[in-house]
Amino acid sequence: MTQPKTGAETGAAPAHAPRASLQRLVSCIRMDEVCVLQGAPVIGACFAMADFSAATLLTIAALVAGNLCLVAHVFVVNDWAGIHGDLQDPRRASQTYVARGENAARMGRLAWALLALALLIFGLVSPASFFIASTIAVLSAVYSFPGIHGKGVPVLNSLLHVSGGTLHFLLGYAALAPISPHGAAIGCYFGLVFAAGHLTHETRDHDGDLHNGIRTNAVAFGKKTSFFASLFLFSAAYGWLTVLALLGFVPLVLSMAAVLYVIHLRAAWMALRDDLTYPAVRRLQTVYRNIHVVIGLAMLATVAPW
């Protein structure tokens, strides 16, 4: 009996090939980082939330879905635009989309598809959320796109992160309430933290960025300057949140930021003592990320109308 020929023998693609191809493409999205960045807009929605009605919960569900697509778009654009440098960095090369078998054209189409889906969802949430999401996408393009490449322009890259972090909080706030000075003041805390965290990231990646000719703040001004600028912005964020708590803009329990700041300072001193090596800065990042997870959970626990 003649055996049936396989897809490889006939030249036809296996039936599961399109699905496998899509799965491979989606696997190139940095989902761990995408999920981490869901916090700010959800917290923003909680600050604006008046009740737990079905309409409110549906809006928050749409907010999360839209933000997943929007943040995924931001990371895909960043990876698409920075592929040449990433391939030359031993710490990043194995994690690139090229290493996973993808190409720039398909990543570009994925980025556009994610943006279109995100804007469609936010268009259904509220006009303000749609406008903010569009603005975040523009900031992402300024940061990543070849020719503009704000990532490699010192100071500008930090301003983009301050703006993006603040808008990310307001993205959630605007889903449930008009933007107010009160909401914008709270959003500034997130902008400061986001920019400070990225300056630490630049400090950590100084050697790779220098090798690839990316003129980050750390490359332009030195690792220690970038590190101390990051610490200054973190200090401003802790101080600002404490002031907001004492003024009654946020729950008083959030004044604990002043205590957590001491833990951050100790971790920063240890990183500096170890000459800001890659592992030392990674340990610092773990400490301050955990601190801000605690602050975020405290916000969720005390702000939402449980």
Automatic annotation (TrEMBL):
GO terms for cellular component: membrane. This is Uncharacterized protein. It is found in: Membrane. InterPro entries: UbiA_prenyltransferase (IPR000537), UbiA_sf (IPR044878). Gene3D superfamilies: UbiA prenyltransferase. Keywords: Cell membrane, Membrane, Transmembrane, Transmembrane helix. The chain crosses the membrane at residues 57-77, 110-143, 182-200, 221-240, 246-265, 286-304. One of its GO terms (molecular function) is transferase activity, transferring alkyl or aryl (other than methyl) groups. It is a multi-pass membrane protein. Its main location: membrane.
